[in-house]
Amino acid sequence: MTTRNWVAVGLTLVSLGLLIPGLQQPALTIVASIPIFNKPTEIFRQTQNVVQAVRSLYETGNYFVAGLILLFSIIVPFIKAAMLGVILSIKAPAPRYRMYLFVRSISKWAMADVFAVGVFIAFMASKAIDNLDAVIGSGFYYFVGYCLVSNIAFQFLEVPAPDVAPATIVRA
Questions:
Q1: I need a labelling partner for 136 at 20 to 30 A (CA). Which of 60, 88, 89, 163 fits?
Q2: Residue 171 falls within a domain, yes or no?
Q3: Nearest 5°: phi and psi at 43?
Q4: Residue 63 near residue 90, CB atoms below 8 Å
Q5: What per-residue confidence (pLDDT) applies to 81?
Q6: How many structural domains comprise the chain?
Q7: Does residue 101 fall inside a structural domain?
Q8: Which domain range does residue 69 map to?
Q9: Burial of 11: CB neighbours in 10 Å, binned 0-12, 13-18, 19+
Q10: Exposure string for 40-75, b = 16+ CB within 10 A, e = fewer
C-alpha cells in the first residue's frame, strides 16, 4: 500500500472520529423570545443534534426528509469509510478501480456538506430577526470537521486505473 493510501486511511479514521460526536453533540439551538415590559422573555428553546433531528422529523410524519437526512448524512458516510477498506483489500486492479469509482460517485451524493451549510444558513437567518436567536453547538463544528477531513482523505486515495490491453487489429 502506498504512503498516500496510508494517509487516506488515517484521515478516514480521523473523519469518523469527528463524525460520531458531530452526529451526537448539539448542532444548533434556536431560542425565540418576546419583549414583555421591555425585557426579553424566552418562549421557546430547542437544541438538537443530527440524530435528534432525524427522530423529530420521523415522529412528526416527515418520513421522506427524515429518510434523506438519515441516508445521506449518517449511513452514506459510514458506508463510504467501510468501502475504503474494501477498496484497499481488493488485489485485482479492475474490480478495485470499479469500487473506487462507485465510492467516488456516492461521495457526490453525501449530504454532510449540504447539512452543514444548511445549519449555517439557519444560524445566519435567525440573526436577522430580533426575537429569534440561534447558537451553533459543538456538533456543528465536529460535523464540518468531518466534511473537510473526509473530502481530503478521499483526495489522498490513490487507485490507478487498470491497464487496458491494446486493441487487437482485425484485418479482413
A1: 60
A2: no
A3: -115, -15
A4: no
A5: 85
A6: 1
A7: yes
A8: 3-156
A9: buried
A10: eeeeeeeebbbbbbbeebeeeeeeeebebbbebbbe
Residues 6+ away with beta carbon under 8 Å from 52? none
**What pLDDT is attached to residue 123?**
60
Phi, then psi, of 55 in degrees rounded to 5:
-60, -45
Is residue 162 in a domain?
no
Distance, C-alpha 11 to centroid of its chain: 14
SS3 for the chain is CCHHHHHHHHHHHHHHHHHHHHHHCCCEEEEEEEEECCEEEEEEEEEECHHHHHHHHHHCCCHHHHHHHHHHHHHHHHHHHHHHHHHHHCCCHHHHHHHHHHHHHHHHCCCHHHHHHHHHHHHHHHHCCCCEEEEECHHHHHHHHHHHHHHHHHHHCCCCCCCCCCCCCCCC
Give how far the C-alpha of residue 64 lies from the chain's centroid of Cα atoms, to the nearest Å. 18
pLDDT along the chain (172 residues), means of 10: 88 92 89 83 84 88 84 84 85 86 75 62 62 83 88 84 60 51
In the block, cell 474490480 appears at 95
Give a yes or no: residue 161 inside a domain. no
Cell numbers standing for residue 77: 458516510
Report whether 157 contacts 61 (CB < 8 A).
no
